[in-house]
């Protein structure tokens, strides 16, 4: 079969040529490093590290700062997963995923005839799950931080109150989502100044958000869940026909969970458990790939093997994954090396012969969500991915409180067999139920070598997240790239359904593309996939190397 043969010289040439295109060198630092999607937020994290904070203090500072400077995905009104690995060896995940309101019902996004109501799960207040971010960040700070909430929130409060200079990408993010942002009064007032688009160089101030942040900093997360912001959330729900009540907010809990632990070629892989599918799929795919010859990155043989692993893992996602607090999820089986061996045999025995079907490029468009990675001087590490789901969430701003709300309800199975925002077709295990958490793809990941942190990484990108993390991880561990090359390298994605192998438009050789098509892969092309923020610690020197994905406008800052 072709995947066993040697790669063509022209393929190898293109593989080598695409790597240095963006690649300068990673940012280096002897002490600490923060990599996030937005430079001011990375700087806020470093400010906290230099003030004596640890990686968790810095991560919480970055999380609140992104809610101010990167409002398309940074948030108070969304949720996510924070993977923490303290230098005493204790890893933990803070699950602060949103939760379906108590009044949610299984078919709430369908009409009387069982048809999905267009946009009902993505735009407006019914799309909102009870937000978890404030509880999650506060819990991380209380249990693992050392400076306290008031100190670590200070940069975010300052940025909201005094404002910051609008960058090209910030102005563009508002311009491109204008039709969503102008639908709701509170959102239009803040982001569109009642019709006048922000231009690069303008100053963007958010006094309502500054007040909300100051309230949380002073009174703790209970201020958000039962104080003035809670009243404002419920009033906004009532205005726009949403479901979240005071009771939903008051009962919300972030949950501490054991991370999943996998092994790959001598490295230990820590990642997120359900209700994210991310860690389960990442470990399942690494188990399949572990003993295989992965050839050169982005060559036909390597894409073939990875794509086959992706398809199988995403097929399992659709069938088995959901909130494990509600139904049994067979995580142990899915992450078992013996199960992977069976899938591997199947891949090697049955080369691709997939029928080519017309795809739905719409389903792959969003890179929404955001990730940041932090390492401190003591070797503590945090990988945090959080989200509003779509860019700017459901479009509704909590009036008077200045923050946007998520549209995470769309991550549930809104109707079996119908694709969500990311084209994912999902199963019974992820059906909507009161107080259940929707299945996520977020994959905050930490790789250990000999018990020490080696890599900290994660990415946005909806259903593509796990595959982005897989490829960047392999680029460092297998293909020996530095972290900047690893994130700059072209990426591809296969999620089993729809049956498409999506390649980034730039960076794959025409020979490789032809070979994939000839082998039966239904290839399509898309623009950028993901925005990976990664830190590596060199085991010999202890230096930290950071890289922010050149696909985004973020920055790694070290010292
Ligand atoms: N909202 C995207 C995810 O959680 O996967």
Summarize the structure.
The chain is of the alpha+beta class and 559 residues long.
What this model shows, in words?
This protein has 559 residues and is of the alpha+beta class. The chain has 2 domains: 298 residues, no CATH class; 227 residues, Glutamine Phosphoribosylpyrophosphate, subunit 1, domain 1, CATH 3.60.20.40. A 7-stranded antiparallel β-sheet has the order 1-18-17-13-12-9-8. Helix 2 runs antiparallel to helix 3, helix 2 runs antiparallel to helix 5 and helix 13 packs across helix 16. The radius of gyration is 22 Å and the shape is globular. The termini are far apart. The N terminus is likely disordered. Bound molecules: glycine (GLY). The site of glycine has 9 residues, from loops.
What is the gyration radius calculated from CA atoms?
22 Å
Count of β-strands: 19
Terminal CA distance reads 50 Å
**Biggest sheet character:** 7 strands, antiparallel
Q: Structural class, please?
A: alpha+beta
What count of structural domains? 2
Number of helices: 19
Overall pLDDT metric: 92
Strand portion: 15-25%
In the sheet with the most strands, the strands line up as: 1-18-17-13-12-9-8
- Which segments are poorly predicted (pLDDT under 50) over 5 or more consecutive residues? 1-23, 354-365
């Amino acid at each position: 079969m072709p995947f066993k043969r040697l790669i063509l010289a022209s393929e190898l040439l293109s593989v080598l040529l695409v790597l240095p295109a963006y690649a300068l060198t990673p940012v280096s630092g002897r002490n600490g490093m923060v990599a996030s999607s937005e430079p001011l937020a990375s700087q806020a994290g470093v400010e906290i590290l230099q003030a004596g904070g640890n990686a968790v203090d810095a991560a919480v500072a970055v999380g609140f700062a992104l809610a101010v400077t990167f409002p398309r995905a940074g948030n108070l009104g969304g949720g996510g997963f924070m993977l923490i690995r303290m230098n005493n060896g204790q890893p933990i995940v803070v699950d602060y995923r949103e939760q379906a309101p108590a009044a949610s019902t299984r078919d709430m996004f369908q009409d009387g005839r069982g048809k999905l109501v267009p946009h009902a799960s993505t735009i407006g207040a019914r799309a909102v799950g009870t937000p978890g971010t404030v509880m999650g960040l506060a819990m991380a700070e209380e249990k693992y931080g050392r400076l306290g909430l008031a100190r670590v929130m200070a940069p975010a409060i300052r940025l909201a109150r005094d404002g910051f200079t609008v960058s090209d990408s910030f102005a563009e993010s508002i311009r491109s989502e204008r039709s969503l942002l102008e639908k709701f009064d509170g959102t239009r007032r803040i982001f569109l100044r009642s019709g006048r688009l922000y231009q690069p160089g303008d100053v963007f101030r958010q006094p309502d958000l500054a007040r909300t942040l100051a309230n949380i900093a002073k009174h703790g997360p209970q201020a958000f869940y039962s104080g003035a912001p809670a009243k404002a959330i419920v009033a906004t729900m009532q205005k726009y026909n949403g479901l979240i009540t005071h009771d939903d907010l008051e009962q919300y809990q972030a949950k501490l969970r054991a991370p999943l632990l996998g092994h790959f070629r001598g490295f230990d892989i820590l990642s997120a458990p359900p209700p994210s599918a991310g860690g389960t799929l990442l470990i399942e795919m690494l188990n399949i790939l572990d003993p295989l010859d992965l050839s050169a990155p982005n060559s036909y043989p390597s894409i073939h093997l990875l794509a086959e692993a992706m398809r199988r893992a995403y097929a399992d996602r659709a069938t088995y994954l959901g909130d494990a607090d509600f139904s049994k999820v067979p995580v142990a089986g899915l992450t078992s090396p013996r199960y992977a061996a069976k899938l591997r045999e199947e891949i090697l025995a049955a080369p691709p012969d997939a029928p080519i079907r017309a795809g739905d490029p719409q389903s792959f468009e969003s890179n929404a969500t955001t990730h940041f990675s932090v390492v401190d001087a003591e070797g503590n590490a945090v990988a945090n991915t959080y989200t509003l789901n779509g860019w700017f969430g459901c479009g509704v701003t909590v009036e008077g409180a200045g923050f946007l709300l998520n549209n995470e309800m769309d991550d549930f199975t809104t109707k079996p067999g119908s694709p969500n925002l990311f084209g994912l077709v999902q199963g019974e295990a992820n059906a909507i139920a009161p107080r259940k958490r929707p299945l996520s793809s977020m994959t905050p990941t930490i790789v250990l070598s000999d018990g020490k942190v080696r890599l900290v990484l994660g990415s946005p990108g909806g259903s593509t997240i796990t595959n982005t993390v897989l490829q960047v991880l392999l680029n460092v561990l297998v293909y020996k790239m530095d972290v900047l090359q690893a994130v700059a390298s072209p990426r591809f994605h296969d999620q089993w359904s729809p049956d498409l192998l999506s390649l980034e438009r730039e960076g794959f050789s025409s020979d490789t593309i032809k070979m994939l098509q000839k082998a039966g892969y239904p290839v399509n092309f898309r623009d950028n996939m993901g925005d990976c923020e990664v830190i590596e610690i060199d085991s010999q020197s202890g230096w930290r190397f950071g890289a922010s994905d050149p696909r985004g406008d973020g920055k790694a800052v070290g010292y």
